[in-house]
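Section 3.1: Structural characterization of target chains.
Under the original work plan, the team committed to producing a structural model for every single-chain target entering the pipeline before any wet-lab resources were allocated. The record below documents one such target. The sequence was received from the expression subgroup and is listed exactly as submitted; it comprises 107 residues.
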Amino acid sequence: MAHVKHDIRHGLSVDQAKKAAQLALQDYSKRFAEKGLRAHWTSDTRAEVEFTAKGTKVQAIVDVLPDVLRVDAQVPFVFVPFKGMAVKAVETEAQKWIQQVREAKSA
């Protein structure tokens, strides 16, 4: 397994950042149910996520911090060549949810 860590800047309060993470994880749990995606909050600011990709379990922790959402994942070595593409996809998706919360806040 390879360790992949990525910080996603959010520019929100911790509560708002958690809301963005909750919305994202709820959506992904529905969209990727066939991959066994499960997410559960182990504290007010930490979620554990796991799913199966290509028959292999991937586990990640999402920490909601004052400036960033920190994604810390353990991925199979076979996926390491796709790390850049995966990090970019996670960043893009997270920013979508962050923007949604930001817009709701200003409405």
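Strands lie at 2-9, 38-43, 46-53, 56-64, 68-75.
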